[in-house]
């Protein structure tokens, strides 16, 4: 059977056109008959201020994902902490299926839990408080009513503050909490967990299950996770 592919944390933006080009090449290769499904586990974009924002970046990505979907490759999307405002309009335009924060898949006989990963970082109390606030539907509705220019400025300010806070946070609290993560995997009855968010690419074998952490695409290295009947393996992508 054809494999499924997983990616996350591309953080696409106009500042890094090489990452967009790399994604488009990957999507075209998947469309060439090499995939049964593609799962995007959040932070596809560096930020998202609403489906009504029309840009060359957003349009080109949606167009290429739609081409992939139209060729019979199912594309699924889980919102991340940077693009949690991606809505059904953009997903419809791109031909993607929007998934909830946690989903369980039967991947070649292995029950697999997938998520972005930010909700597993329970030691980062400040972030979880912030997440709870910005995920309030009423607040999101009010934010999306603001002029696009205002939303963009607010998002840029929040990113700057987040970057400064990240520089002084202990590295361990920005990783997943092992006890909570194991509890979630057991609660969903899964044998394997795939997530992103921490950018710490690795395949862990722990507490009776496999935890696979997807990497980001910045720096000199980028990869996709290939899952098939033989298991899961990271496949490096050639960066031009």
From TrEMBL:
EC number: 3.6.1.54
UniProt binding sites for Mn(2+) 2: 43, 81, 116, 197
Catalytic activity from the UniProt record: UDP-2-N,3-O-bis[(3R)-3-hydroxytetradecanoyl]-alpha-D-glucosamine + H2O = 2-N,3-O-bis[(3R)-3-hydroxytetradecanoyl]-alpha-D-glucosaminyl 1-phosphate + UMP + 2 H(+)
GO molecular function: manganese ion binding; UDP-2,3-diacylglucosamine hydrolase activity
Residues at which substrate binds: 81-82, 124, 162, 166, 169, 197
GO cellular component, one term: extrinsic component of plasma membrane
Keyword Aminoacyl-tRNA synthetase on entry: no
Pathway: Glycolipid biosynthesis; lipid IV(A) biosynthesis; lipid IV(A) from (3R)-3-hydroxytetradecanoyl-[acyl-carrier-protein] and UDP-N-acetyl-alpha-D-glucosamine: step 4/6
Binding site for Mn(2+) 1: 9, 11, 43, 199
Membrane topology: Peripheral membrane protein
CDD domains registered for this protein in UniProt: MPP_YbbF-LpxH
UniProt remark on cofactor binding: Binds 2 Mn(2+) ions per subunit in a binuclear metal center.
Keyword Cell inner membrane: yes
Cofactor(s) demanded: Mn(2+)
Pfam family, one: Metallophos
Enzyme class (EC, first level): hydrolase
Domain named Calcineurin-like phosphoesterase: residues: 5-200
Coiled-coil zones: none
Location of this chain's protein in the cell: Cell inner membrane
Record key words, sorted: Cell inner membrane, Cell membrane, Hydrolase, Lipid A biosynthesis, Lipid biosynthesis, Lipid metabolism, Manganese, Membrane, Metal-binding
GO biological process: lipid A biosynthetic process
Family: Belongs to the LpxH family.
Reported function: Hydrolyzes the pyrophosphate bond of UDP-2,3-diacylglucosamine to yield 2,3-diacylglucosamine 1-phosphate (lipid X) and UMP by catalyzing the attack of water at the alpha-P atom. Involved in the biosynthesis of lipid A, a phosphorylated glycolipid that anchors the lipopolysaccharide to the outer membrane of the cell.
PANTHER family for the chain: UDP-2,3-DIACYLGLUCOSAMINE HYDROLASE, UDP-2,3-DIACYLGLUCOSAMINE HYDROLASE-RELATED
Protein name: UDP-2,3-diacylglucosamine hydrolase
Organism encoding this protein: Neisseria lactamica ATCC 23970
